[in-house]
Here is the input.
Amino acid sequence: MHMGGMVDDLDNPGSGPTEAEIAFVKAYLAEGPMDPALVVRATSPEYAAEREARMAELRARDWPNLGQYRRANAAVQIPTKAVFLGDSYTEFWQAADPELFSHGIVGRGISGQTSPQLLLRFMADVVALKPRCVHILAGGNDVAGNTGPSTPDDYENNMLAMITLAQAHRIRVILGGLTQIKAFQWAPSVEPAGRLAELDAWIRATAKARGLVYADYPSVLADPEQPIRPEFSRDGIHPTAKGYAVMRPVVEAALARALDDVGDRYSGVTVR
Here is the structure.
């Protein structure tokens, strides 16, 4: 079915999270037990089918979901200090710590996205906002296969393309470390731990080789027994507000390094 052609302005209904999804994320992030009704609803086959149908329609209409932040981008006061680009880790972070995402720091996370989708959003959601630095945190959904099968080379090329775009526009780069995950509930056949360790090692090495900042989130979220400590996550994947609270000093140190005007203090550092 033909979805329409090029127009001067687009209205993108349904591009962002639904009210039900927002309510679930808020409950997930908060302390204390979640409302059982929310959990039952979010884990029901009917809800999964409904959400997948909505996502399939959105992908057919706007595969990288450029529409989610189109209006917000138009309202941003330019230039910005930093843009956080990523998937659900970044989108949930925006809800968990709105104070962080203020005073020129802008969140551009979209749940479920993979690195090729982030790359397609990079000009509109990062470069156009003229930030001094960009924070890129992505890879888990590539491993899960959210947009189809891919290889580590595909992921690395997408990340390198974003780094190249950023540097071409004099935007400094922070690369977020990937938390090791034992299993994806939505992709049970995938065994992610080894792949995520491989990608995180590449991210760390790339930051060092190219003079970028590596934000070492795994070091504060994990312990020797767990890739993400139970007090920091409900599902073994996404941080709760407590998890984001221990990530906050890491990202503040990373931002301080990336925004430092003394070049040799920026080059190839790891912050934890």
In short: The chain is about 45% helix and 10% strand. The mean pLDDT is 92. Strands lie at 82-86, 105-109, 133-137, 172-176, 213-215, 269-271.
